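Q: Sequence in, structure out?
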Amino acid sequence: YWFKNLRTAIGVNAGTMLTAFDSKKYNLVDVYDPLLIGNQSLNIFNVGLGATSRPIEKLTLGISANHLNRPRISLQGDMRRQVHLQAGAMYEVWKFKPMIMWELDQGESYYAFGSEIWFKDLPVVNAVMARAFLGSEHISFGAGLCYNNLRMDYLFDYPRTDLSIITGGTHQVVLSYNFATTECDEPPFAHV
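A: Exactly. Output:
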Protein backbone atom coordinates (compact mmCIF):
# COMPACT_ATOMS: atom_id res chain seq x y z
CA TYR A 1 0.00 0.00 0.00
CA TRP A 2 2.72 2.50 0.99
CA PHE A 3 4.75 1.90 -2.20
CA LYS A 4 1.65 2.25 -4.40
CA ASN A 5 1.00 5.76 -3.04
CA LEU A 6 4.65 6.82 -3.26
CA ARG A 7 4.16 8.23 -6.80
CA THR A 8 7.63 7.45 -8.10
CA ALA A 9 9.01 7.78 -11.63
CA ILE A 10 12.25 6.18 -12.81
CA GLY A 11 14.07 7.15 -16.00
CA VAL A 12 17.08 6.19 -18.10
CA ASN A 13 19.26 8.64 -20.00
CA ALA A 14 21.44 7.41 -22.88
CA GLY A 15 23.27 9.43 -25.47
CA THR A 16 26.58 10.40 -27.00
CA MET A 17 29.13 13.09 -26.16
CA LEU A 18 31.48 14.50 -28.83
CA THR A 19 34.91 15.99 -28.09
CA ALA A 20 36.89 17.49 -30.96
CA PHE A 21 40.22 19.31 -31.36
CA ASP A 22 41.43 21.06 -34.52
CA SER A 23 45.13 21.99 -34.28
CA LYS A 24 45.07 23.93 -37.58
CA LYS A 25 43.71 26.97 -35.75
CA TYR A 26 46.64 27.22 -33.29
CA ASN A 27 50.21 28.47 -33.62
CA LEU A 28 52.05 25.60 -31.99
CA VAL A 29 55.50 25.87 -30.40
CA ASP A 30 56.29 22.25 -31.30
CA VAL A 31 54.46 21.34 -34.51
CA TYR A 32 55.46 17.69 -34.02
CA ASP A 33 53.93 17.33 -30.54
CA PRO A 34 52.06 13.97 -30.78
CA LEU A 35 49.25 15.25 -28.54
CA LEU A 36 48.45 18.13 -30.88
CA ILE A 37 48.99 16.75 -34.39
CA GLY A 38 46.07 16.96 -36.82
CA ASN A 39 42.37 16.85 -36.18
CA GLN A 40 41.27 14.60 -33.36
CA SER A 41 37.78 13.72 -32.18
CA LEU A 42 36.19 11.33 -29.75
CA ASN A 43 32.55 10.25 -29.76
CA ILE A 44 31.53 8.35 -26.62
CA PHE A 45 28.41 6.63 -25.32
CA ASN A 46 27.00 7.89 -22.00
CA VAL A 47 24.42 6.32 -19.62
CA GLY A 48 22.50 7.70 -16.62
CA LEU A 49 19.60 6.89 -14.30
CA GLY A 50 17.22 9.09 -12.34
CA ALA A 51 14.14 8.99 -10.16
CA THR A 52 11.60 11.43 -8.72
CA SER A 53 9.13 10.73 -5.97
CA ARG A 54 6.30 12.45 -4.06
CA PRO A 55 6.15 10.61 -0.73
CA ILE A 56 3.69 13.22 0.62
CA GLU A 57 1.42 15.66 -1.22
CA LYS A 58 3.63 18.77 -1.31
CA LEU A 59 7.12 17.21 -1.15
CA THR A 60 9.07 16.17 -4.27
CA LEU A 61 12.40 14.34 -4.05
CA GLY A 62 14.77 13.66 -6.92
CA ILE A 63 18.03 11.82 -7.49
CA SER A 64 20.13 11.11 -10.58
CA ALA A 65 23.42 9.49 -11.53
CA ASN A 66 25.06 10.25 -14.89
CA HIS A 67 28.16 8.83 -16.61
CA LEU A 68 27.50 5.42 -14.99
CA ASN A 69 29.64 3.71 -17.63
CA ARG A 70 32.57 6.10 -16.83
CA PRO A 71 33.18 7.03 -20.49
CA ARG A 72 36.70 7.83 -21.70
CA ILE A 73 36.99 11.59 -22.27
CA SER A 74 40.64 12.10 -23.22
CA LEU A 75 41.83 12.17 -26.80
CA GLN A 76 45.08 10.56 -25.62
CA GLY A 77 45.34 8.12 -22.73
CA ASP A 78 42.59 6.66 -20.59
CA MET A 79 41.13 9.62 -18.65
CA ARG A 80 37.54 8.77 -17.73
CA ARG A 81 34.53 10.86 -16.68
CA GLN A 82 33.58 10.23 -13.05
CA VAL A 83 30.01 9.37 -12.05
CA HIS A 84 28.03 12.60 -11.54
CA LEU A 85 25.46 12.43 -8.71
CA GLN A 86 22.62 14.91 -8.04
CA ALA A 87 19.90 15.00 -5.40
CA GLY A 88 17.26 17.54 -4.52
CA ALA A 89 14.11 18.29 -2.58
CA MET A 90 11.24 20.73 -3.20
CA TYR A 91 8.34 21.60 -0.92
CA GLU A 92 5.28 23.51 -2.15
CA VAL A 93 4.15 26.47 -0.03
CA TRP A 94 1.19 28.27 -1.64
CA LYS A 95 2.53 29.14 -5.15
CA PHE A 96 6.18 29.08 -4.04
CA LYS A 97 8.33 25.98 -4.35
CA PRO A 98 11.56 26.38 -2.39
CA MET A 99 14.29 23.88 -3.34
CA ILE A 100 17.62 22.62 -2.17
CA MET A 101 19.97 20.68 -4.43
CA TRP A 102 23.30 18.91 -4.02
CA GLU A 103 25.68 17.43 -6.56
CA LEU A 104 28.94 15.50 -6.60
CA ASP A 105 30.97 16.00 -9.77
CA GLN A 106 34.59 14.95 -10.36
CA GLY A 107 35.04 14.49 -6.60
CA GLU A 108 33.81 18.02 -5.76
CA SER A 109 30.58 18.68 -3.84
CA TYR A 110 28.25 21.58 -4.79
CA TYR A 111 24.95 22.93 -3.53
CA ALA A 112 22.18 25.21 -4.76
CA PHE A 113 19.18 26.88 -3.13
CA GLY A 114 16.29 28.27 -5.09
CA SER A 115 12.60 28.74 -5.58
CA GLU A 116 9.94 28.66 -8.26
CA ILE A 117 6.62 30.44 -8.37
CA TRP A 118 3.75 29.26 -10.59
CA PHE A 119 0.65 31.10 -11.80
CA LYS A 120 -1.90 28.74 -13.35
CA ASP A 121 -5.19 29.01 -15.25
CA LEU A 122 -4.36 32.33 -16.92
CA PRO A 123 -6.45 33.75 -19.80
CA VAL A 124 -3.98 33.14 -22.66
CA VAL A 125 -1.66 30.41 -21.37
CA ASN A 126 -2.23 27.58 -18.92
CA ALA A 127 0.66 28.54 -16.65
CA VAL A 128 3.60 30.93 -16.19
CA MET A 129 6.62 30.10 -14.05
CA ALA A 130 9.61 32.07 -12.72
CA ARG A 131 12.63 30.57 -10.96
CA ALA A 132 15.87 31.71 -9.32
CA PHE A 133 18.81 29.76 -7.90
CA LEU A 134 21.93 30.59 -5.93
CA GLY A 135 24.57 27.87 -5.83
CA SER A 136 28.15 27.40 -4.74
CA GLU A 137 29.19 27.47 -8.41
CA HIS A 138 26.54 29.56 -10.18
CA ILE A 139 23.54 31.87 -10.01
CA SER A 140 20.62 31.42 -12.41
CA PHE A 141 17.27 32.92 -13.34
CA GLY A 142 14.58 31.48 -15.56
CA ALA A 143 10.99 31.60 -16.75
CA GLY A 144 8.57 29.32 -18.54
CA LEU A 145 5.22 29.28 -20.33
CA CYS A 146 2.82 26.40 -20.77
CA TYR A 147 -0.04 26.09 -23.26
CA ASN A 148 -1.87 22.75 -23.27
CA ASN A 149 0.77 20.12 -24.17
CA LEU A 150 3.36 22.67 -25.35
CA ARG A 151 5.92 24.19 -23.02
CA MET A 152 8.76 26.71 -23.44
CA ASP A 153 11.42 27.39 -20.79
CA TYR A 154 14.31 29.86 -20.65
CA LEU A 155 17.25 29.84 -18.23
CA PHE A 156 20.24 32.18 -17.79
CA ASP A 157 23.15 30.76 -15.79
CA TYR A 158 26.17 32.79 -14.62
CA PRO A 159 29.20 31.10 -13.02
CA ARG A 160 30.48 32.20 -9.60
CA THR A 161 33.92 30.70 -10.27
CA ASP A 162 37.03 31.67 -12.23
CA LEU A 163 35.02 31.01 -15.40
CA SER A 164 33.23 34.33 -14.86
CA ILE A 165 36.38 36.03 -16.20
CA ILE A 166 35.96 34.48 -19.66
CA THR A 167 32.19 34.01 -20.03
CA GLY A 168 29.15 36.21 -19.84
CA GLY A 169 27.00 33.27 -18.79
CA THR A 170 24.96 30.73 -20.72
CA HIS A 171 21.42 30.79 -22.07
CA GLN A 172 19.21 27.72 -22.33
CA VAL A 173 15.94 27.56 -24.26
CA VAL A 174 13.84 24.38 -24.13
CA LEU A 175 10.74 23.71 -26.21
CA SER A 176 8.93 20.53 -25.16
CA TYR A 177 5.72 18.69 -25.95
CA ASN A 178 4.02 16.41 -23.40
CA PHE A 179 2.32 13.47 -25.13
CA ALA A 180 0.88 12.01 -21.93
CA THR A 181 -1.33 14.84 -20.63
CA THR A 182 -2.63 18.31 -21.44
CA GLU A 183 -2.00 19.53 -17.90
CA CYS A 184 0.89 21.90 -17.23
CA ASP A 185 2.91 19.98 -14.70
CA GLU A 186 6.12 21.34 -13.30
CA PRO A 187 9.23 19.61 -14.66
CA PRO A 188 11.90 17.94 -12.55
CA PHE A 189 14.94 20.07 -11.74
CA ALA A 190 15.60 21.51 -15.19
CA HIS A 191 18.55 23.80 -14.54
CA VAL A 192 21.14 21.39 -13.30
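Strands lie at 8-22, 39-56, 59-66, 84-91, 96-105, 108-120, 127-135, 138-147, 150-159, 170-177.
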